[in-house]
Design brief:
This protein is α/β, with parallel strands linked by helices. The chain contains 14 helices and 17 strands. The radius of gyration is 21 Å and the shape is globular.
């Protein structure tokens, strides 16, 4: 495909007008201001459009689209115990598949090309991702409330089978990560067993909830005499590349652990604010040299996958939390949304618009009134744009969404099946 006469945001975060980008197979073959020679198939008229690398959602629970709007205006524990956990107890394979497919459609509509997903029924999540054409790092989250021998847990066995059957499936679109749900939902034996398994296989990423709430953080100190980050490091869980979700209450010492161990922090600003959990000090984390990515968390606590909204809230939340309007620049936000997420997922060939990188691209309408005047296009992308401005989403060189139409997802059937599955669960509650 050839994108012609288009404005682009390149891998140096420069805005280049009247540019050309060519894709061959799953790869970007050419980026420049001169029309390339050769036949690249379809030509896309880029007038009034900006082309950039697609967004990477670094922390999500995709099947929870079925719980959108189901538990509102509740404190976290009431939200979990009274609404979410009872609903989740009724989930089945069919519900998870269609919930994930609905999430993939919304993701593609908003320019998300890849998602780091933590949940269960993971084979059904993988099927939906495969069918949608999107990318995902999927992890079977482990919990252990009973002290059961980890190797005998069904979830541990499922995790191993998932890795064996799906890691690097679909030409690498699907990767399998490891996941301890969190310090507070498990025990040291489970944490150590998971760390040992991850070290043994090597080619994986550890995905964990870390210091999401004040109570989680403080109770870990009471139990173990150390913070969640320090505890997880002591268990060996940061001995492989790791993704720490939330980190709202991370201390200076925790941030140093993240820096030293190469842990990525996945901040989830909208969800954390909506549940009144707090605001992650992303500006400080970046200042210390830690990689930062952006997650939406679940639609049950967000309630949207609009990544432009996520970026704007991230910037504004950090400014107001510290009463410092100069922190969190739009450039830092865009980097976290693209290359920061790619690094978090171990996808070195993604997250940037450059020749040789994967053709995971999004086109954005920049002709609309809210995108003018243009004093700085990156500022407009973070503060003025919205998810509805995405006009095309491409993954591995294949157009999956364009102008309201999906090429791999039957959206009417997906909405029908997701609604039907939700109604079935509600009748059981």
């Amino acid at each position: 495909m050839l994108f012609s006469d288009i404005t682009l945001l390149n891998d140096h975060y420069e805005i280049i007008p009247h540019a050309f980008v060519a894709t061959e197979g799953d790869t970007i073959a050419y980026v420049g201001t001169e029309r390339p020679e050769g036949d690249f198939g379809r030509e896309y008229d880029g007038k009034g459009r900006l082309l950039m690398s697609g967004f990477i959602n670094a922390h999500a629970h995709s099947p929870m689209t079925l719980m959108r709007g189901y538990g509102e205006n509740l404190k976290l524990q009431s939200w979990l115990n009274d609404r979410i956990f009872p609903f989740e107890a009724q989930l089945d394979s069919n519900a998870v598949y269609w919930g994930t497919m609905l999430s993939m459609a919304e993701s593609l509509q908003y320019g998300i090309v890849s998602t780091s997903d933590m949940y269960y029924f993971c084979e059904d999540i993988a099927r939906a991702v495969a069918d949608s054409g999107a990318k995902a790092n999927i992890s079977r989250s482990l919990t252990n409330f009973t002290g059961q021998e980890p190797q005998t847990m069904e979830s541990f066995k499922e995790m191993k089978v998932l890795y064996e059957n799906y890691h690097n499936a679909e030409n690498g679109r699907i990767k399998i990560d490891m996941s301890l749900h969190g310090e507070y939902t498990s025990d040291p034996r489970t944490a150590k067993a998971l760390a040992e398994y991850a070290a043994e296989i090597g080619d994986t990423i550890m995905h964990i909830h870390v210091s999401e709430t004040a109570s989680e953080h403080e109770e870990c100190i009471q139990r173990h005499g150390m913070s969640p980050a320090a505890y997880l490091e002591s268990m060996g869980l940061f001995d492989v590349p790791a993704l720490a979700a939330h980190c709202v209450y991370s201390t200076e010492d925790d941030i140093e652990i993240f820096r030293r161990k190469g842990v990525t922090v996945a901040t989830n600003p909208v969800s954390n604010m909506k549940l009144a959990s707090g605001i992650c000090d992303v500006s400080r984390i970046l200042e210390k040299g830690v990689n930062v990515a952006i997650g939406t968390d679940s639609v049950a606590s967000n309630n949207s996958l609009d990544f432009f909204e996520e970026m704007k809230v991230l910037a504004i939340g950090n400014k107001v939390a510290k009463l410092q309007p100069e922190i969190m620049t739009p450039l830092q936000i865009i980097k976290a949304a693209t290359e920061g997420g790619a690094k978090a997922q171990g996808r070195a060939d993604c997250g940037r618009l450059a020749a040789g990188a994967k053709a995971d691209l999004i086109a954005i309408d920049i002709a609309s009134p809210n995108m003018h005047p243009v004093h700085d296009m990156i500022n407009n992308l973070v503060y003025s744009c919205g998810g509805r401005a995405v006009t095309l989403t491409m993954v591995d060189g294949k157009v999956l969404y364009e102008n309201g139409e999906f090429t791999t997802i039957d959206i009417e059937k997906t909405i029908y099946e997701a609604e039907k599955a939700t109604e079935g669960i509600l009748k059981k509650l």
